[in-house]
User: Which sequence fits this backbone?
C-alpha cells in the first residue's frame, strides 16, 4: 500500500550519504562564525565605551560612507568602531559561507534539486549584497 496515495517524504539528514567532513564544516562554520562575531562586537562595544569622542566614531556617525579601508584601519588600530564593523561583517558572511558549503554538500550527494536551489539562494545573496553596496 505504500505506492498508491502515499506521500513522498524527504530522507532524513542522517540517511543521506553526506561526507561527515561537510556536516562538520557546516556545524563549525556557524558556531565559529557566530562566536567570533559576538566576541568582536562585545570587544568593539567595550572599547567604544572608553573612546566615545573618537574621531573615527564621529566620522562614521556623521554620514561618511563605510569602506573596507575604514574597517581595516579601525580594527588594526584596535578602535571600538572598527571591531564593531568587523563583527557585523563576520555576522553577515557566516550564513553566506554556510550556503556555499551546503551547495557543495548537495552537489557531492548528486541532489540536483537542492543543489540548484542552494545555488539560486547564493546568487540572490550575492546580488542583494552588490545592490546594497552601491546605492
Assistant:
Amino acid at each position: 500500500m505504500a505506492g498508491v496515495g502515499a506521500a513522498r517524504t524527504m530522507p532524513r539528514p542522517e540517511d543521506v550519504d553526506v561526507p561527515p567532513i561537510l556536516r562538520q564544516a557546516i556545524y563549525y562554520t556557524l558556531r565559529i562564525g557566530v562566536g567570533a562575531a559576538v566576541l568582536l562586537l562585545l570587544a568593539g562595544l567595550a572599547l567604544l565605551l572608553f573612546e566615545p569622542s573618537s574621531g573615527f566614531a564621529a566620522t562614521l556617525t556623521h554620514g561618511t560612507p563605510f569602506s573596507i579601508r575604514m574597517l581595516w584601519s579601525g580594527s588594526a588600530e584596535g578602535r571600538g568602531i572598527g571591531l564593531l564593523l568587523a563583527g557585523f561583517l563576520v555576522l553577515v558572511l557566516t550564513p553566506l559561507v554556510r550556503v556555499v558549503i551546503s551547495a557543495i554538500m548537495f552537489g557531492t550527494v548528486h541532489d540536483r534539486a537542492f543543489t540548484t536551489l542552494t545555488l539560486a539562494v547564493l546568487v540572490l545573496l550575492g546580488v542583494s549584497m552588490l545592490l546594497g553596496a552601491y546605492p
Remarks:
- Helices lie at 20-50, 55-61, 68-76, 80-108, 112-133.
- The longest helix spans residues 20-50.
- Residues 19-133 form one domain.
- The chain has one domain: 19-133.
